[in-house]
């Protein structure tokens, strides 16, 4: 039997590569003659650099600033005049310090890094959006990219608070190079499914702050003509900011799976294994697990989904299970690895018994 293994990162626990390794070990324990085909995958969030690093890109380091304006060293991937940036490394939720005010976090560091890479001769930049701790509409990024952000009196804003609150006028500066946003959600720039309401609470925002920022996102979205742009709300509105200066918004999952020739590899497989830390409604709204399940359904390959937590099963899959069934949930790396391995082994045993 041939197994294609494409698991996303189990956030806070193990990487995409380690998760795939664990499932492969479980399969081979049950069937030593199984043929394994595996790759790290991502959808534009955490783990995107690892995908491109496995495909010939070189990982490099550069200095920028984080979501609170502190100097930080980050990694990016480069091949020739192309570069991949993972914003979770610059303004990720995990980078916020305990005393940082969630309301004040910004995306200036992303623009700062883009400018640095441009000076190095990079002409094509892909920015993987996902996992940010910011809800600034991407205005910090726009400021660094040379756009003019002014208050109601026409004076340049001073970033004394969230730039969404200060900014009333924007003079855009279009980019002269290839700029692409890889998004893991299709959320709009504002509204109930926008970044403030959908992700504000998990980023530490209070209810009043969420309402305030959503109202400002609605007004800025109108200024930037983002009302009907899918994915504009990704990374707290950074997707919309990239679109506003001439960049494109692409499904991170679809782009990465196409790059990895997943549909072609699926056609040669008997089973495909996928999964992530939590499978829920969002898994079907642009996440890589849902996208793999969708493509597997089209080419009629049985899809098995393993997750840390399963809140809502993905339609069309053979099955969708939690590796913690009947056990305490843990983010421990070794336990997660062991449970993925054992669940894969026992699942394959079940499948073999049914076929026999």
Structure in words:
The chain is an alpha/beta fold and 356 residues long. The protein folds into 2 domains: 2-41 and 263-355, Glycerate kinase, domain 1 (Rossmann fold); 48-253, Alpha-Beta Complex (Glycerate kinase, domain 2), CATH 3.90.1510.10. 36% of the residues lie in helices and 21% in strands. It is built from 13 helices and 13 strands. It has helices at residues 16-30, 48-53, 88-91, 108-119, 139-144, 163-166, 195-199, 207-223, 234-244, 252-259, 262-266, 288-298, 333-355; strands spanning 2-7, 35-38, 58-65, 71-79, 82-86, 124-128, 148-150, 169-171, 178-183, 248-251, 271-279, 303-310, 319-322. It has a 6-stranded mixed sheet with strand order 3-4-5-6-9-10. Strands 2-1-11-12-13 form a 5-stranded parallel sheet. A two-stranded antiparallel ribbon has the order 7-8. Helix 1 links the parallel strand 1 (2-7) and strand 2. Helix 1 (16-30) crosses helix 13. The longest helix is centred in the C-terminal third of the chain and has 23 residues, at 333-355. The chain is elongated, with a radius of gyration of 21 Å.
Roughly how many Å is the radius of gyration?
21 Å
CATH topology of the largest domain: Glycerate kinase, domain 2
Q: Helix count?
A: 13
CATH architecture group name of the largest domain? Alpha-Beta Complex
Nearest-integer average pLDDT: 94
CATH superfamily of the largest domain: Glycerate kinase, domain 2
Q: Could you name the CATH class of the largest domain?
A: Alpha Beta
Specify the structural class.
alpha/beta
Distance between the termini: 14 Å
- The string of secondary-structure elements, in order, is EHEHEEEHHEHEHEEHHHEHHEHEEH
Largest sheet: 6 strands, mixed
Strand arrangement, major sheet: 3-4-5-6-9-10
Q: How many domains is the backbone divided into?
A: 2
Percentage of helical residues? 25-40%
**Global shape:** elongated
- Number of beta-strand segments: 13
Q: How big a fraction of the residues is strand?
A: 15-25%
Unreliable sequence segments: none
């Amino acid at each position: 039997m041939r197994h294609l293994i494409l698991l996303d990162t189990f956030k806070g626990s193990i990487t995409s590569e380690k998760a795939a390794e664990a499932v492969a070990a479980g399969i081979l324990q049950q069937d030593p003659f199984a043929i394994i085909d595996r790759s790290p995958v991502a959808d534009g969030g955490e783990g995107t650099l690892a995908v491109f690093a496995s495909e010939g890109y070189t990982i490099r380091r550069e200095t920028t600033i984080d979501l609170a304006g502190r100097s930080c060293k980050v990694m990016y991937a480069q091949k020739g005049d192309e570069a991949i940036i993972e914003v979770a490394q610059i303004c990720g939720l995990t980078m916020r310090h305990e005393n940082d005010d969630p309301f004040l976090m910004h995306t200036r560091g992303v623009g700062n890094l883009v400018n640095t890479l441009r000076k190095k001769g990079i002409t094509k930049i892909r920015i993987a959006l996902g996992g940010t701790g910011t809800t600034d509409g991407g205005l910090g990024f726009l400021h660094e990219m040379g756009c003019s952000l002014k208050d109601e009196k026409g004076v340049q804003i001073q970033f004394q608070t969230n730039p969404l609150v200060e900014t009333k006028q924007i003079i855009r500066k279009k980019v002269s190079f290839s700029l692409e946003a890889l998004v893991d959600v299709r959320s709009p720039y504002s509204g109930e499914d926008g970044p403030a309401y959908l992700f504000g609470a998990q980023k530490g925002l209070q209810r009043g702050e969420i309402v305030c920022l959503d109202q400002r996102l609605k007004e800025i979205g109108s200024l930037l003509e983002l009302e009907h742009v899918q994915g504009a709300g990704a990374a707290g509105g950074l997707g919309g900011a990239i679109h506003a200066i001439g960049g494109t918004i692409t499904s991170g999952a679809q782009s990465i799976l196409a790059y990895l020739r997943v549909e072609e590899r699926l056609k040669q497989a008997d089973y495909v294994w996928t999964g992530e830390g939590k499978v829920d409604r969002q898994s079907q709204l642009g996440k890589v697990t849902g996208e793999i399940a969708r493509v597997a359904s089209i080419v009629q390959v049985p899809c098995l989904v393993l997750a840390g937590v399963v809140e809502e099963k993905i339609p069309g899959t053979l099955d969708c299970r939690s590796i913690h069934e009947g056990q305490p949930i843990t983010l421990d790396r070794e336990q997660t690895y062991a449970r993925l391995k054992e669940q894969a082994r026992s699942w394959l045993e079940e499948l073999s018994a049914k076929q026999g």
